[in-house]
């Protein structure tokens, strides 16, 4: 069986690139090369990108550790889907005009993935 973590790492990597492009475009529109210059659209794009960069790598590290430790494939896929949907929902909510329910839902899904993966790591370490 091929690794499960590379699937989600690849998908999240493409999401990271998409968010990077949104920041670059917003910088061009706002004519701001550093910081956000007080531009609300640029601020949202920068935070969507930054928040993604803050959560996705750590979750992928947990996923890889769980996978290498023998966590079941179904659990890894569940956590991967939670993470992917969570990060996508959160990024969409922050990048656009904003939707607090979508943003909160994205964080809830991301936290569910982190808890699932953390528990999987603990379970495989303690068995």
UniProtKB/TrEMBL annotation:
The organism encoding this protein is: Muricoccus nepalensis
Major subcellular location class: membrane
Q: Tell me the compartments it is located in.
A: Membrane
Question: Has UniProt tagged this entry with the keyword Amino-acid biosynthesis?
Answer: no
For whether the record's keyword set contains Membrane, the answer is: yes
The uppermost taxa in this organism's lineage are: Bacteria, Pseudomonadati, Pseudomonadota, Alphaproteobacteria, Acetobacterales
Pfam families, alphabetized: MAPEG
Recorded GO cellular component terms are: membrane
Q: What protein am I looking at?
A: Glutathione metabolism protein
Q: Which UniProt keywords apply?
A: Membrane, Transmembrane, Transmembrane helix
Segments crossing the lipid bilayer: 6-24, 58-84, 104-126
Q: Which PANTHER family match?
A: GLUTATHIONE S-TRANSFERASE-RELATED, PTHR35814
